[in-house]
Amino acid sequence: MNLILLFDEDFVDADVVSLSGRRLQHVRDIHRAQVGDSLIVGKENGKIGLGHILDLDKNHITLKTEFTSPPPAPLPLTLIMALPRPRVLNRTLIAATSMGVKNIYLLHTNRVEKSFWHSPVLGETKIHHSLVLGLEQGKDTVFPNVYLRKRFRPFVEDELPEIAAETRKIVAHPQNATEAVAERTQPTTLVVGPEGGFIPYEIEKLQTVGFRNLSLGERILRIETAVPVLITKLMSQ
Amino acid sequence: MNLILLFDEDFVDADVVSLSGRRLQHVRDIHRAQVGDSLIVGKENGKIGLGHILDLDKNHITLKTEFTSPPPAPLPLTLIMALPRPRVLNRTLIAATSMGVKNIYLLHTNRVEKSFWHSPVLGETKIHHSLVLGLEQGKDTVFPNVYLRKRFRPFVEDELPEIAAETRKIVAHPQNATEAVAERTQPTTLVVGPEGGFIPYEIEKLQTVGFRNLSLGERILRIETAVPVLITKLMSQ
């Protein structure tokens, strides 16, 4: 927790918050903070600043806040990924959020197991919790939008062209990779396939709406590793 | 498992292996392979090729193997990281191994909790298992060396100069970052700190032996994300 994310309901006064639960525990056990210390705080979808500890015991912590800086710039990259298996979805959401991705689409493809869509990790509360962890990690306050799209073809035909308009269109797919990574960061829409990859039909559909294949080389990476690596390749200055 | 890693003890004949347990389960449940299919296999620290399924039932799988290609090139990067907390150590080892890192040092620093060194995840069998998973993921066969170093100063003073000789020397540390990322891949020694970062004394010691600070920007990443991102930045062509 490199930043303590604060929500409207935490405020007991205009500039004073009272926290309990996970955030209190973290401040006590990991930060080992004491009355008088200051911690980095941020307001949900708002500014970043400091929270000065007024009071701290085992049931609550009270902070006087002042918000001074804007959150870090969002990454100009929209991430569209085949829904990963539940145990890696959270980690991948945390990683993408911590890197500043603000729009994430989870997509059904041929090789996504249907059962993944019934996992509790897709519940709104679970996803929200992963986003909170990602924001706290990346010292950010602005929540990404996470969209679930269970039908590949209507998504690619009807929605994707507008999402990807005026951006570099990249699909992470090793075969017939044609796209060299450009030198400079530019707005990008990145599509990442499932374990086992896209089927040829899906690649054709993506190519029809302007996507070009990008290879990461002969090694294949886990989704929670591949996403940060791809973002780094595409977004480095 | 993008490659099935085979060990000497798996061979029941010069070119025939018999497997059970985890690898059998994976071939049945994930690959859903059948007699007659071919799977990508690799020999421990050796070549890569195909395994043709001669026989498959719920207790074992028999493959006739032929090894034709060398494993992928190792990454010319030595990774030295402050020992992460147990629950992320395995994931970070898998990620680094899947990307081709061949020399990994786990180092004690001031902000590494001493208890981490007593975790069962540091057992030889556990570490070996993470390396196997990383190699299977990255389609590689060559095991990384993993070294444990519990004393920071003797390591940096006596061992590190030789490890890092003739390589670019980088420490991931945001303050006073001076090192711009070079355009082309070159042999590199990368040092990554613990949660909470290095203390000033440690940074000074590393600078004394030639290390320069590299910043990833204002966002802070989890170790299992930071390592792949740093490797990508330093090793991209």
Topology:
The structure is a homodimer of 237-residue chains.
Chain A: E1 4-6, E2 11-13, E3 16-19, H1 21-31, E4 38-43, E5 48-56, E6 61-69, E7 77-82, H2 86-98, E8 103-107, H3 124-138, E9 145-149, H4 152-163, E10 168-172, E11 188-192, H5 200-208, E12 212-214, H6 223-235
Helix pairs in contact in A: 2-3, 2-6
**What is the makeup of the main sheet of chain A?**
6 strands, mixed
Q: Helix tally of chain A?
A: 6
Q: In CATH's first tier, which class of the largest domain in chain A applies?
A: Alpha Beta
What is the mean pLDDT of chain A?
92
Q: How would you name the CATH homologous superfamily of the largest domain in chain A? A: SPOUT methyltransferase, trefoil knot domain
How is the quaternary structure best described? Answer: homodimer
User: Roughly what percent helix of chain A?
Assistant: 25-40%
Q: Which structural category fits the helices and strands of chain A?
A: alpha/beta
Rg measurement of chain A, Å: 20 Å
How many domains would you count in the coordinates of chain A?
Answer: 2
- Stretches with pLDDT under 50, minimum 5 residues of chain A: none
- What is the β-strand count of chain A? 12
Strand order of the largest sheet of chain A: 1-4-5-6-3-2
**What overall geometry of chain A do the principal axes of the alpha carbons give?**
elongated
What does this structure look like?
The structure is a homodimer of 237-residue chains. With 237 residues, chain A is an alpha/beta fold. Chain A folds into 2 domains: 4-69, Beta Barrel (Ribosomal Protein L25, Chain P), CATH 2.40.240.20; 77-235, Alpha/beta knot. Chain A is built from 6 helices and 12 strands. Chain A has a 6-stranded mixed beta sheet. In chain A, β2 (11-13) and β3 form a beta hairpin. Chain A is elongated. The mean pLDDT of chain A is 92.
